[in-house]
Amino acid sequence: MSETKPAPQTITDGKTVHGVVAEFSDVDSLLAACERVRDAGYTKADAFTPFPVHGIDKALGIKPTVLPWIALAAGGLGTCTALAMQIWMNGIDYQYIISGKPYISLPAFIPVSFELTILFASFGTFFGMWALNGLPKFSNPMFTSPRFDRATDDTFFLYLDAKDQRFDEDGAKALLGDLGGEYIEPVVDDDSSKKIPTGLLVGLAVVIALSLIPALAVARMRVTKSSSPRFHIFPDMDFSPAKDAQQISTLFADGRAMRPNVPGTVSRGDLDWDVDFHTGIDMEKLAQIDAPRARQLVAMMQSDVEVDQADGQVAGEEAEEATEAVEETTETEEPKAEDAKSEEPAAEEAEMKEEAAEEESSQETETASEEDASQEEPAEVEPATEEATVEGSGEESEEMAAEEETTEEPAAEESEPAPAESEEPETKKPEAPAALAPASGPTVDTTPWLTENPLAIDQAVLERGQQQFNIYCSVCHGMNGRGNGLVNQRAQRILATTWTPPSNLHDETLYQDAYPDGKLFSTISNGIRKMPGYASQIRAKDRWAIVSYVRALQASQNASLEDVPAAQRKAIEKEQSDVKAALEKAAAEAEAKAQQSAT
Questions:
Q1: Segments making up each domain of the chain, as ranges
Q2: pTM attached to this predicted model
Q3: Which UniProt keywords apply (predicted)?
Q4: Interacting residues of 119 by C-beta distance below 8 A, sequence separation 6+
Q5: Which residue, 225, 486, 517, 585, has fewest beta-carbon neighbours within 10 Å?
Q6: Exposure string for 120-151, b = 16+ CB within 10 A, e = fewer
Q7: What is the pLDDT of residues 472-490, one digit of tens each?
Q8: Structure confidence by residue, pLDDT tens digits, 101-113
Q9: Which CATH number among 3.40.50.300, 3.20.20.80, 3.40.190.150, 1.10.760.10 corresponds to the domain 459-563?
């Protein structure tokens, strides 16, 4: 027969008995008593010690807690919540590719899933512990015993709860006495008032009311409009101008919203390559066409060299040493420019003697014409031209200016006003030979771009280029390079008026013969139109790898069987024959069905 739970016993003063407690003076006697109580069949017993006692849980027969399972379940719920939230947000409700990853990318979802797993598990552990221990409990009958205060000092206590089915007050006292309990007493109700103090209730109500104010303010802000700015306790960067890469900014002189790299800085590990590798330009040929630009590009590769942006000249002795190799290619042009400069003062002095009686306006016209003539090479200036420049009137000077435009002189130099006689003559840049001078017109690109990729193209380089392309380029240009990326699709869906569609990489104007590899590398590095430069995000070696993958992507659209290695042609020919046979079979079946339906 199963034993029934006895009714709580009372003592003479009418207080309810909640159990019996006994004191022990040492750990060994407490452990022995716990084992005897366990063997006697008591399941609701507890021990109180001033310090942790190893093995006391086993001695009391306490079963392992279910709290770890609660923490596991809560953590699993957090993981499922995070995954469901991210799948819905990024894969269903607002589809957007980030860094080339698919809509539903489990590796990318790990950080948020991990955080919510820990958060839910910690909450489950905290509140599960409260529930298992019956908390919050504002009073405990054990606190009615004044001797129980020594449980935190030097005394050990063993408590038998009256809720145990085997509990009997007299039998419990006798058992604890036999086990060596030095002082045994019943645990009765706390006779203090059970009414919660009014002040505590009022204070709790005030705290709850005050805590609702921020929530109500936030709810009101979400449904109302106001022309006043928000109240910021900590402004931080809330009021700093935020610009997108697609916008125009007035913060920088070039109008870009994304600030370019600081000149002279080089990423770690990138100094192993030369200037050609980092710019995509043949610097030797550029030095012959545009020496100042070549010197500037070389100087930018030096971390301790200053570059004068006004005239493209390099300042400092270290810069001259760094560009010595580039200047050697322009030694043939420098003497000619110096001769032109040395002849300029002598020509001016002769003119001043001959034309001293003429008016001031004629002198200014002659000076302007003479400076235009001095910019040309001595070997190309004819005597008749010099005389027309010195003695001609203002109309003849305008005719000469028109003729100089047809001889590939830049229009910007002719539109500059001529300086007065009192001003010192400006220092002119050395002019390139006529054979190497850039052609006029805004659409002509005379930059000597590298025509071949400096990397050794192999499977590893192409795979690296594909990876970087999918991360940085496919968002706009699409995985196939046809300009149908998700950003462009969304811009078309929302009818963005300021959006410039990305280029189709399979356009013939972007093939290698029309768009050299070096120019494509420079476009990736520095950007074009609304495309920002990626030099600060992608290493130079990876940018060249992207160039190689783009070329492979272009070749894949127009490849022929001759482009396939000989060892793989047979497999492709077999696959072609199988596809052709399948198509012929399908066509025959369709024709047979059509004939049957016709009959």
A1: 1-191, 270-436, 459-563, 567-599
A2: 0.42
A3: Heme, Iron, Membrane, Metal-binding, Transmembrane, Transmembrane helix
A4: 78
A5: 225
A6: bbeebbeebeeeeeeeeeeeebbebbeebeeb
A7: 888 888 888 888 888 888 8
A8: 788 888 999 999 9
A9: 1.10.760.10
